[in-house]
Amino acid sequence: MRYLFFIGLLISFCAQAQDLTLGPVQKLDKKERISGIFAHDDTGFYVLRTTYRIGSLGDQVIEKYDNSLKQKYSTPLAFEKNYTFDQVFSFGDKLWCTFNFRDKSKSKITYYLQEISAKSGKLTGKKQIIDTGKMDAKNARGNINRTESRDSSKTAFLSSDQSIPGFFFQGIPFGKNSKGFNEFNIKVFDENLNELWKKRLKMPYENENFSVLRYRVDNEGNFYLLIKVLEDDWKAKRRNKEPYKSYQILAFTDKGESKKTYDIKIKNRFITDITFAIDDEGNIVCSGFSNDSAKQSIGGAFYFVMNKDTEDFIQENYKDFNTAELALFMKERKAKKGKEISYNYNLDYLILREDGGVVLLAEYFDIITYTTNNGNGGMSTRTVYVNGDVMIVNINPNGEIEWVRKLAKDQRGSTSRYSSFDYAIVQDKIHFIYNRYIGKRTDVQLTFIDNEGKMGGKDLFNAKKEKVLLLPAGCRQISDDEMIIYGEWRRSFQFGRVKF
C-alpha cells in the first residue's frame, strides 16, 4: 500500500497544458513485480523490484532511474541468513530499509533498520534495532508500520507482536481476529533517526471489538490513533438500524508520558466514514461523511478542528448534500426523494488546504462474485473488482461545503492492480491520472479540477498504441509540476514523465 502525504492546496492560477515523455521499455520476468517509486531526489528516482515465490517474498532489488528515465543501477538487497524484508522508504534525505529476524526457539521477533546507499543501492552502515516482540504462533511474522509528520521532521513506527493474512498499513480487524492486537509498541524518531521516545500501548477497551483506522505523528513528535469501537451487541443494533459504533482519538504527547482520549461525536448525526490529520499548528482536523440515522449510507459531510490541549473546537460544522449533489451519484428521482449515497465510497484521502479547509477524495469500490452453471452439474465462480467514480468534496475553513464533484470512471477487472487513480497537486488544481476502463484498448485519462470546482482534461495516451497500461499505484509526484508515471504491458514496463 502507498504512503499517504497531505499537501497544502494553493490558491493561484496555472496553465492546463501537460507534456508527456515515455522512457525506454524495460523487461520484467514472470515472477517479478515493480512495487512502485519509493523515493526521489534531484538526480532521479528509486524503485523496488521484487521477485515472488510461492507463499513468500523472494529477492528485493533496489533500482535507480535518472531524470531521462534510464536505469542507472539494479542492486539486490543482501540480507544475512534468516532475515526477512519488511519495507523501503526515504526519510531525512536518505534511503532506508526495515527487516526482521524471527527466533522461533525463543518465540521472539526483532525489527531492524538500516540505511541504503543512494549511490549504489547497497545496504550501508550498521543495522539498528527498532523494536523486539514476542511471537505467539510458530509462523507469526509480526507487523511494523510507519508514518511521518507533515514537515518530515519526525517519523514513528507502530509494531505489533501478531500478524494475520491481509494486514496492511491501516486497519485491524474486529472480534476474534483482533486478539493480540490490543497491545502495540510506538517508537518516535527525529529527522536523523535518533530515538525520541517509545511506549508500550495497551488499548483501553475491555472487549475486542475495536479497530485502528489511522495513525499520525505530528511535527512535535506527538502520536495519534483514530479508533473505531463497536458496542458489545453491535450486530443486533446494526440490524435494527440503531447506533452501534463510536470513534475516538488517542493522543500521546510529552514524549509519550501524557495520554488523552478525544470522543469524536457530531450532534444529531451518525458518522459513516472518517479520517483525520494534524495541521501545522498541532490542531486535530477531522472530516468525513455522515447521515441522520444509523444506516450505512452517506447523506452529507462534516468537518471540525480541535485544539489538542484545551479540547475546544476551533471550528465545527456539518452539512447534508443537496439534491443536485446527490444526483451526481444516483438517479435524479431518488435524489429528489432524499435518498442517501451508497456506503461503497471509501474515504481514501484528506487534503489540507492552505487556508484551513479540506478536500475529501472518496472512491467507489465493490467486489462482485458471479456464479454460473457449467452445464455438467458443476458451478463456477468469477470475481470482479469494481473501482468506480471518485467523489470530490471541497470544504471551506468554516466547515461549509463549497462544492461537490464527481470524477466519472468505471474500472472492472479480475484484479484491481490497474484500477483506481493517482493525483498531483499543481498550484490551484488537482490532476487525476487513471485508466478510463480496464482493458488494453483503454485511454489513459488526465483530468483536473480547480479550486472553483471547474473540471477539464484530456486523453494522455492510448494503452494499445503506446503498448503500456497505467498502474496508478506506481506513480509519484516528484516536484511542484512533475509526476513520474508507471505502466506495464505483458512482460515489460515503462516509466514516463508528465510535466504540468
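(the above was protein one; protein two follows)
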Amino acid sequence: MYIVNFEKNRTGNYFAKEAIVNRNPQQYKIADDEYDRQMIYFLIDVLLLNRNGKFPTLHQNPIASALEMWSIIGREILKDKD
C-alpha cells in the first residue's frame, strides 16, 4: 500500500523524503493524500517506533472508526513485542 523512502540529514537523523501510495482502485480505494500522509506517520510511530499515535480515520462514527483501525493494523497490535 505504501512505500516510503528515507534520507539521512546532516545531523544523522532520518526523514521521509518521498512516499509512494498505491492508487489502484481495485486494491486501495482511498485517494486522499492528507489521510495517507497521516496514516504513514501513524504506522511508523506505532509499528516501527513502538510509540503511541493518533489513528487517522475517515469516519465520524466511533464504531466505523474502530473497524477501520482493526482492518488496517489489528493483527499487529496483538503480536508480542518482546
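Reviewer note on protein two: Strands lie at 2-8, 14-21.
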